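Colleagues,

For the teaching module next term, I've prepared a clean inverse folding example: a structure given as tokens, and then the sequence designed for it. I'd like students to try predicting residues themselves before seeing the answer, so please don't circulate the second half yet.
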């Protein structure tokens, strides 16, 4: 193990960029290449490899590249690599809890049920069917003023019904 941090820093300065480029060419993954370079340097530190070290008649650079290549091979053979799918986007988008939305919808349905049929029909057609006053009046065969009046009183009754169920505003 190398105890002088300057030796490891020098080894990193001399070889890390070339090592990273080599791993990127092997894998095409820049982030994974950073991980491999880090692991390779850690192993060099543990083994006491320096630029002056000759390990089995090889230079430190050759040792580093060999270790990096073996790390890439080991990763490609791993079960995790075979099961992972690389994607540009997350497969699912994070969504909030839908429980509140379900309860809100149930409360609105219950409040709508408390309206008179003529008020409920106008409110539902306007807000859920996105129909205009004119379209609703033609469909129901009533004057537009009647639709506006039913809408006004229907919304007022709906607001009161929701307040009774704990919705404030």
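(Answer key — instructors only)
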């Amino acid at each position: 193990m190398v105890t002088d941090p300057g030796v490891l820093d020098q080894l990193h300065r001399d070889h890390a960029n070339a090592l990273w480029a080599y791993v990127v060419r092997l894998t095409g993954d820049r982030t994974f290449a950073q991980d491999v370079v880090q692991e390779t340097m850690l192993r060099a530190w543990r083994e006491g490899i320096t630029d002056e070290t000759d390990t089995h008649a090889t230079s430190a650079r050759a040792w580093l590249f060999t270790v990096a290549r073996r790390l890439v091979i080991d990763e490609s053979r791993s079960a995790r690599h075979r099961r992972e799918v690389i994607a540009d986007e997350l497969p699912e988008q994070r969504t909030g809890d839908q429980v509140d939305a379900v309860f809100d919808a149930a409360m609105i349905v219950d409040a709508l049920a408390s309206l008179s049929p003529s008020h409920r029909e106008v409110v539902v057609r306007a807000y859920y069917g996105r129909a205009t006053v004119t379209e609703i009046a033609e469909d129901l065969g009533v004057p537009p003023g009647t639709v506006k009046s039913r809408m006004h009183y229907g919304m007022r009754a709906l607001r009161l019904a929701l307040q009774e169920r704990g919705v404030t505003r």
